[in-house]
Amino acid sequence: MSTSLAAHTYSEVDVAVDGGTLHAGVWEPADGAAEAPTVLAVHGITATHRAWGWMAPALPGVRVVAPDLRGRGRSNALPGPYGMARHADDVAALAAHLGLDDVVVAGHSMGGFVAVVLAHRHPGLVRSLVLVDGGLPLALPAGVDPDAAMAAVLGPAAQRLAMTFSDTDAYRAFWQAHPAFAGHWGEDLGAYFDYDLEPADDAYRSSARLEAMTGDQRELFTGESLLLALGALAVPAAFLRAPAGLLADAPLYPADQVREWAGRLPTLRVVEVPDVNHYTIVMTPAGAAAVAREVTAHVAATP
């Protein structure tokens, strides 16, 4: 499939990875410049590559390459195990297939975790990082079991992945009523959620696999490969913080937690993005424009 945007031509590509095929979207500058800088963009825990469809048009002259991560979108047939290291290696295989190196990597939510681990496991690939409300361990209060914390933060997402919907209109209605998108609904969001659906018997469901989410979610709190990667972080990184969370409520990252991590990581810079939540920081024109401004600065700093 190929569609034209104002400054880009969009196409899709399949790449062989361990266990099967990884699917990805590519927004190519419409002027066809062979030396266009490239940004690798990695989506969140239950999202797809099309979450970057708002940012790409705001980056004229920049190629955006974004995978559907293992267990999501059109890559959902890829088997486990999952985890940040597995996702990072998949993204590295996509980059190798396209001949990419020394690129800016943007990651939203869990995609930020993947981006940090990618920089550690494949250092020649990553020039700098733009971490969009993700990529730092989520706070685990003292005495709280990680599984209980995961259920509190990600429980609504897990419930959605177990649901079925009669048709695309029903799925659109579900998201249109979601508090994160109040006042933001439009056909662009509808088309995004259409892509996320797949047939399930006589109904439809999200393409994200529940087992993929549960296989990944513990690392968001306990770190594992992330903590090792953060301890070795050597590339410039920006953390873009949303002041509201997944339900347009309390932020996923309290400001003091982010400041603490910035104090521990010399290459990390914090950018506060006003008037957005964890979804709308990438999935609205205003939020994506803020991300694009940061990505543009990173691209401009790339030799």
TrEMBL record:
<feature type="domain" description="AB hydrolase-1">
    <location>
        <begin position="37"/>
        <end position="280"/>
    </location>
</feature>
<dbReference type="Pfam" id="PF00561">
    <property type="entry name" value="Abhydrolase_1"/>
</dbReference>
<dbReference type="GO" id="GO:0016787">
    <property type="term" value="F:hydrolase activity"/>
</dbReference>
<protein>
    <submittedName>
        <fullName>Alpha/beta fold hydrolase</fullName>
    </submittedName>
</protein>
<dbReference type="GO" id="GO:0016020">
    <property type="term" value="C:membrane"/>
</dbReference>
<dbReference type="InterPro" id="IPR029058">
    <property type="entry name" value="AB_hydrolase_fold"/>
</dbReference>
<dbReference type="InterPro" id="IPR000073">
    <property type="entry name" value="AB_hydrolase_1"/>
</dbReference>
<dbReference type="InterPro" id="IPR050266">
    <property type="entry name" value="AB_hydrolase_sf"/>
</dbReference>
<keyword id="KW-0378">Hydrolase</keyword>
